[in-house]
Structure formats: structure tokens, C-alpha cells
Amino acid sequence: MHDGEAAVLRSKTGKLAIKIRKSGDLHSDFVRAYRGGWMKYGKNINVLTDDSTGDEGEGVPLP
Q1: HSE toward the beta carbon, residue 18, CA cutoff 13 A
Q2: Residue 60 located in a structural domain
Q3: Cys staple from 36: which of 8, 28, 44, 53, with CB 3.0 to 4.6 Å?
């Protein structure tokens, strides 16, 4: 993967098209999202998480 390259993040609940920007301060297995978009257009990082409620509270991403 290279800076500026298009990629798709996928989970069991959805997918999100992104552009890659590498960072030396973040492990390569992790993703940092600086800002979101409109959920109704599928442009928000939360499309990758399930909206279940857990012991930690509502909307907590659980494995």
C-alpha cells in the first residue's frame, strides 16, 4: 500500500472506501479516521461497526 492509494475497509457489517495515508506513529494493522461523513451516504467509519449494546454502553464497537 502506498500514500494516496485507494482501498476498501471491510467488516461483517459494511465497507468503506478510503485513501491511504501512512503514518510512522501508527501500527500497520490499525486505521485512524480523522473525520467522518454522512452515515446516510455510507461515508462514515461507523458503517464498519455493529450498533449493538454491550456492558460498556451503546454503540461500542465489539469484536
Answers
A1: 21
A2: no
A3: 44
